[in-house]
Design a protein that fits this description.
Elements (H helix, E strand, L loop, with lengths): L7 H4 L2 E2 L2 H5 L3 H12 L5 H8 L3 H14 L2 E6 L2 E6 L2 E2 L4 H9 L6 E6 L4 E3 L4 E10 L5 E7 L4 H6 L4 E6 L4 E9 L7 E10 L10 E9 L4 H5 L4 E5 L8 E3 L5 E8 L6 E6 L8 E4 L3 E2 L5 E2 L4 E3 L4 E8 L9 E2 L2 E6 L7 E4 L2 E3 L5 E9 L1 E2 L4 E9 L5 E9 L6 E6 L2 E4 L4 E10 L11 E11 L9 E8 L5 H25 L8 E6 L4 E2 L7 E7 L4 E9 L5 E9 L12 E3 L2 E8 L6 E11 L8 E4 L3 E4 L6 E6 L3 E3 L6 H8 L3 H5 L13 E7 L4 E9 L5 E9 L12 E4 L2 E8 L6 E11 L9 E3 L3 E4 L5 E8 L2 E2 L5 E5 L7 E10 L4 E5 L3 E3 L2 E7 L5 E10 L5 E11 L12 E2 L10 E2 L67
InterPro entries: Ig-like_fold, WH_DNA-bd_sf
Keywords: Membrane, Transmembrane, Transmembrane helix
Amino acid sequence: MNSNPSNPSANGGKTINIADILALPERQRQIVLFIRREEGHTLPEIADHINENEQAIAIELDELVQEGFVREMEVEGIPRYYRSEMRRQGSPFSEMIQQALTPGKPLSMIVNPSGDAPITPGSTFELCVTITNEGNQSALIEIYIDETSQFLHQWCISPYERLALGQGQSSEVVFQIPIPLDATPGTYNYLLMVDAQQHYPEDTPIQHQARLQVLPFVQEAIRVNDPTFSLLPITSSAVPAVVQPGEPLEVQVLVHNRSDRVDQFRLTCPDLAPIWYRVIYPEGYTDTGVVRVMDGLELNPGEKGLIQLIITPPVDTWATIYSPTVRLYSLNNPDLVLLDAIYLQVMPIYLLTVELVTLVGKVSHQSGVFELQLYNGGNITRDIALIAKSADGDDLCTYTLIPTQVRLAPGGYAIANLEVQPSQKWWRRPFYGRVLNFVIEIEDLQQFPLLNNRFQGTLIWEGRPWWQFLLVILGIVGLIGALIFLLWFLFFRPKPRPEIVEFAPAGKNYSAADQENVRLNWEITNPKRIQTIKIQGVSPDGVVTSGPIAYNFSQGIPNELERFCTADEILNCQNVPTDAREPGDYVFELTVIPQGKKRGELEELQTNTVKITPFPIPEIEEFASTQPVYQEVIQPNPEAADQEASPTANQNNSPEAQPQPENLGILLNWTISHPEQIRLLKLVGRNPEGIVTFPMQSIDFSQGIPQPLQESCEIQNEALVCMNLATGVRQPGTYIFELTVVPQQGEPEELPTQKTDPIKIEAQPVPFDIVEFTVNGIETLTRPKFVVQISEDESIPVPLSWKVEGGRELKVELLPAPGTVPREGTVPYPLSPEPSTETITLQVTNEAGEQKSRSVTIETIQPPPPEPVEMTPLSPPGDTANGLPTFDPPPPPGDASASQMQTPPSPSPSPSPSPRTTPSGTEPTPLPLPPGGSPPLPPGADSPPPAELPPKFR
C-alpha cells in the first residue's frame, strides 16, 4: 500500500530539510539518510545496512512513515521504502533548527535543549551543541559559554571547547553543568557563542541565548497534583483510528484536575492546521442562569470533565497514517506540558480522471495528433502505464505515445502526447478515404482500481486526390505500349551479334614457381549466336607463344569448357586454362566468330600484357661465423691420458680429471631465402692469401634438408636458417669461408655467393715437459752424476734415452752433441777414453721461446791397479767414496764369461728406493754391451771426436 505525506497546502505540511533529519534520533537519522541516498530498499536490506535486527528497524520505519520522512510502497507484493519530500507540520523545536541552518552560512548550529529548560538543584544540566561545517574549507571552531552568563559559566565543568572540522563534517559538544544543591530557584539567562575567527571571520560569532529555570525542591511534591488527561478512542501506530477525507472524527478528552485549586484547561493540536480540527468545550452557566460559550474547561479540585475534539481531514489530504500531538494547557500552571498523541489513518480515494483530446484528427500524409489528459483527483500517488494500438486489428498506422508511463501525485495533472502515423506505402492509401479506430489502454502499476481503462479515438485518413486517377489512366496506356514493344522485340527485331563484354586474365601475378598455367576470364553477350571462339597468346614482338586454341559453340558449350563456363543471357567463362606456363610476357587475343552466313566483322579483344615471372633465385641474406675470433682447444695426449688412467699411488691421491669440452671448430650461421629453390650449397674455406684451407663441400638440398644438417637447419619464415654449423676447422689461423647457392631451376649467369669476414683461430700456448731423461735406464733426476771406469784407449758408449710431451713446434736438443733430436729417442753416447768430466744437457724450446732443460754429469776415471780379487762390473750405489755410481770397463773381446754384465747384490738396503725399479725391486741393470756381444773398438787416428759422431736413434 502506498503511503504519502499530506498535501502541504491542506494540512500544514512542509518540505523536509537537513534540520528535520538532524533532529531525529541516531537510528532514525541513519535510516532516513540511507533511504535518501538509495531508494527502493526492503526492510531486510535496511536492517542489514544499519546492523540491527529487523523488528527494531520495523518500529523505527513505522514512526518515520507516520511522521512523513519515508514513504512505503508495495512493488510486486513486497513493501519498499522511498524518500519523502514533504512531512507534517513541525514543532517549534524544528522551526528553531531551521533558523539555525539558514542557507548561505558556512556554519550551522543545533542546540538541545534550544529553549527554556527546567531543572532542580543537585541535577546535571547537559547542553548539547551540534556544529556542521558547510563552508568550502576546513575550520577551527570555538564553542563556549560566555562569561556574562555568570552562574552557568561558574557551574560548567568545561565552559570552553574547540573543534576542528573538515568541509562537510559535523560534530557534537556536550557541556556538563552540575546545579549546586544550594542554588537559588529562579531563571538564569545564558549566552552560547560559536566562533571561527581564523577561517570564517565575516560569519562568526554565532550567538544563542536561552534560559535555565532552577525549580525549588517542593516541585517534586507539586507534580503529584499535576492534572492529567486521556483520549478516547484509544489509538496506536498499529491500531490507528480510521477516517475518510472530509469526514469528522470525534475524540473525547477526559481531563482530571488533581490539584487543590480551581483550574481552567484549554486544548490544542500544535501539529495540525486549524482547518483540521475543532475543540468544543462544555457550555457554562452564569449566575443568572444564562448559557454562555466557554473557551476552556473549568474544573474544581478533584473534578473530571470532557472536552470534545473534532478532527476533520480535508478532502485532498493524502492517504497515510498521521500522529498529531494533543496538548492540554493549565491556566494555573502555564509552563506545565501535558502531551499525548492520537493516530489517524486517512483512507485512500481512487479517483482518476482521463480525457482523450483530438488535436489533429484528419490527415492525408502527416500524423494525427492527440492528447491524453490525466488528473489524479484522489489522495494517493498513481503510477499509470499507457498503451496505444489499433482497434481494428490492422497495421495501417504507427502509434507513438510519449510518455508511456506517468506518475501522478494527489491533485497532479499530466499529459501524454499520441502521434498516429498512417502507413507511408502509397498503395495502401484508400481512394475514397477511411476511418481508422484506435484505443489507448491504461494500467495502474499498483493495481489500484480504475473507473475506465480503455479510451477510443478516431483518425480520418483522407482519400487520394483526383489527379492520381489520371496517373492510373496514363499507366494503362503505357502498359499497352509496352506490350506492343515486347511483341516487336520478340518477333520482329534483328538478331543481335555476340559482343565481348570482358576479357582479362584470372590473376594479376603469375610465377613459374607455382607451376600453373595462365587462366582467362571472359563474358560474351548472346551466347546462342556464337559459332567459334579462338584464343591465342603472342609475345610483345608478335610471335605466337601460346595456342591458338579454338572452341566450337555450334552445339552449345563444348565439353572442355563445361567446368568453366555458364551460358544464360551472357556467356560467362572463368579460369579457363591456357598452355602458357613458361616465363615471359604474353598478350592474349580472343576472337568470336558468330553464326550465320552474314558474319560481318569478327569480334576481337586483347588483354593487357600478362607476365609470368621466372623461378625465384635463392639469395643469401646472412652468412657469418658465430664469433669473429676462436681460441684453440688443446686436445689431450692419448698416451698421457693412458698414463693418468693407470692405477698408481699418486693418482689415487689426485682429484678426478674434468672431461674436456667437445671441440667443433669454427661454427657458421646462414640464412637463405626461397629454400625450396635450393639444389646445392657449396662451402669452401680459404686463408687471406686465397689458398684453400677448407676443401669445398657440396651439400645436396634437392630432397630437402639433408639428414646431417637437420639438427642445425630449419625453415623459418620461408627461409633456410642454419645455426651453429660445425666445420671441424680447429687449427690456428685466419679463414674466410665462401658459400655458393646453386638453384633448382636453371643456371643463372652469376650464382649467389657470399663470403664471411675473416675468422681467426688464435693459438693457445700448450704446456710441455721432459717426461724422461735416462742414462743406461737410470733417471737423471735421481742420479744427476755418474762415474765410469774406462780402459785405456777404449771408448765406452753410454745409452741415453729421453722423452718430451706436450707443446707444439718444439725444438729438442741434446747438447753438446748430437744437437737437434726428435721428441723421443735413444742414442749411444761415446765417452772419451781419457779421464774427464762431461755434462750432457737435454734442452727443449717451444714456439714462444720458453725453455726447459735437464742435465747429467758423467765422469770417466782410470781403473785402479789390478788386484787378485775379481772386479765387479758395476759398483752398487753407495760403495764409492763420494757416493756416485761407477761403471767398470767392459771385458776384453771374445771373453764369453763377460758377455753380460752382472750386478752383485747390494750389501745393505738402499735408504730410498729408486724411482725406476724393476719388478723384483733390484737395482737397474748396468750399461748393456753393444750388439754382437763385444764392446766397440777404440777409434782410430782418423776417427772423428765423439761429439761429431752421428746420432743413432732407435
